[in-house]
Amino acid sequence: MQEHDVIIIGSGLAGLTAGAQLAKEGKKVLLIEQHNKVGGCATVFHRKIRGRKTGFEVGLHEMDGLDSAFDPKKRIFEELEVNSNVEFIRVPEFFKITNGRFDLTIPHNIPEAINVLSKAFPDEIEAIETFFKDIKQTYSFLVEGNLEKLASISQTSIGEYLDTITDNEDLKFVLTGNLGYYHDDPYSLSMIFFSAPQISYFTGGGHFIKGGSQSLSDYLASVISNNNGTVILKHLVTEIITENKRAKGVKYIRTKQKDDEDREEFSVYAKVVLANAALPNVVNDLVPSLQNTEYQKKVNSLKLACSILSLYLGFSKPTASLGHNAYSIFVLSEDLTKLKDFYPQERMNDYSKKGFTFVDYSMIDSQINEEGIYTGVICTIDYLDHWIHLNETEYNNKKEEVAQTLIDRLETIIPGIKDIIIYSEVGTPKTMVRYTLNPEGTVYGFAQIPDQVGPMKHEIRKPPINNLYCASAWTGSGGFSGAIMAGYTCALKILKDCWKD
Predict the structure, then answer these.
(1) Of the candidates 118, 49, 59, 117, the residue with the CA atom closest to the CA atom of residue 357
(2) Number of other residues whose CB lies within 10 A of the CB of residue 181
(3) Which residues are within 8 A (CB) of 112 and not within 5 positions of it... i.e. 6 or more apart?
(4) 329: three-class secondary structure by DSSP
């Protein structure tokens, strides 16, 4: 009956990384993806603009750590020969941040960042140096597995920590400038979770994948296919088949038939099932035997992370022609004066006040598009409840209104940019639900708040079903790096547990 060694549900970076590693180890892998391309959030979509095929990066702004000797992805990429097949481009700065009171560019380098910050905040040099010392130390505790030291800060948020070293609110905004990479609230974001990727960015730089993140996803899928594996697109897994508390296969349908009463259902069997899927979907929809269990209750009790709204923009010329020089710029409302007010303002359904990020892919040799076509994206923290209640007309009208609001705000930062915009398209939290199937449209999985970091993640990584494993942003630390590492470590655990010989 067994047709494969491992069935993987979903082709996000965790599923692709795990599948590639298992396939290279000689396991017969079947990966099933409901979308028409692999990658999840690590994808590029295309539109025809002025008769030319134009690509838009879905999720990647910059990947952390690749220039650091301590980056755990190095080993993964070496084993899977990623660097020989995928090219990475170092982006020019960590980020630029502006709010009308300050305008600073933060480099990917701790001494240089301290220098920039010290010049901008000369009365806060001690706080600045303390900040970098403490987040480096927190990262080292994490790497060393020093649970005793981590316990002392395990319930501390990055906002609470900053309040202990400075009263300067603008400095707090700058030090958490890229908060949206991780969470929506500095006063509930775990300091441990914040520190690790920040240090990775500061010591190993930020990189874009040449050709867009689709290049990495497609390569990992090719490793599976080239090692006796199979990747099936446009099919949706509807159930994980279990027997005597053991996973033995899955049922799946063609995606376009998911609402048809007479849909054709397929069954396929394997020794191991790996769910690269939202954990709430696993416990609530895919495994009937997990209904009304303590594990299901635990998963459903956890807080979900925020979603995002993306405004994809096409330009007739590079923004450098307008004097713009930043790859990524974080824009805060000038009337936001206290870090404690960041989350309440983000939670509002008012896009004239919310902070946003503009990422300009024309600033690097992204190779997403042919010469003469330029793209960028505005991203802002968002929530499904701002959109779910709208009918189709209201939904489309609101998308147009939000796009115009954000473009108007971008115009105040880069005068003249409205004149070179030739295309715009909004992706909302509803869009995220449709393409990723993630509840609430979250892109980070569970919120990285103190109570949900560390031991909690270990408790939920392995469902109480033999030979069923989970690997995704929901079981890792979120983001591209977190998903890649979650997939790799899950693959190693599967090999150890199920093929000990």
Answers:
(1) 59
(2) 20
(3) none
(4) strand
- pLDDT tens digit string along 424-464? 999 999 999 999 999 999 999 999 999 887 655 667 788 99
Task: Judge whether 4-45+56-60+212-302+446-498 and 89-209+307-382+388-427 match in fold.
Answer: no
Q: How many CA atoms lie within 13 A of 154 on its CB side?
A: 15
What is residue 368's three-state secondary structure?
Answer: coil
Nearest to 97 by CA among 208, 180, 187, 167: 180
- Residue 30 pLDDT > 90: yes
The residues, any chain, with a CB within 8 Å of residue 321's CB and separated by 6 or more, are 420
With a threshold of 0.90, does the pTM exceed it?
A: yes
The identity of residue 457, as a single letter, is K
The CATH code for residues 89-209+307-382+388-427 is 3.90.660
Q: In angstroms, rounded to a whole number, what is the distance separating the alpha carbons of residues 266 and 264?
A: 7
Buried b (16+ CB within 10 A) or exposed e, 223-262: bbeebebbbeeebbbeebbbeeeebbbbebbbeeeeeeee
**DSSP letter at 36?**
S
- Tally Cβ neighbours within 10 Å of residue 337: 14
Percent of the residues in the chain that have a pLDDT greater than 70, as a whole number: 97
Q: What pLDDT does residue 366 have?
A: 94
Residue 20 has pLDDT above 90, yes or no: yes
Could you report the per-residue pLDDT of 338-376, keeping only the tens digit for each? 999 999 999 999 999 999 999 999 999 999 998 888 999
Distance CA(445)–CA(256), nearest Å, equals: 26
Using the Cα atoms of residue 401, residue 403, residue 406 and residue 407 in order, give the sign of their dihedral: negative
pLDDT band at 154 (very low <50, low <70, confident <90, very high): confident
Any idea what the Cα angle at residue 101 is, between residues 187 and 312, rounded to 5°?
70
What mean pLDDT value characterizes the chain?
A: 94
Query: 105 - beta bridge partners?
Result: 96
List the domain boundaries for the chain. 4-45+56-60+212-302+446-498, 89-209+307-382+388-427
Angle between helices 125-144 and 158-165 in degrees, nearest 10: 140
- With beta carbons less than 8 A apart as the criterion, state whether 239 and 281 touch: no
Q: Which fold has domain 4-45+56-60+212-302+446-498?
A: FAD/NAD(P)-binding domain (3.50.50)
For residue 318, how far is the Cα from the chain centroid? 26
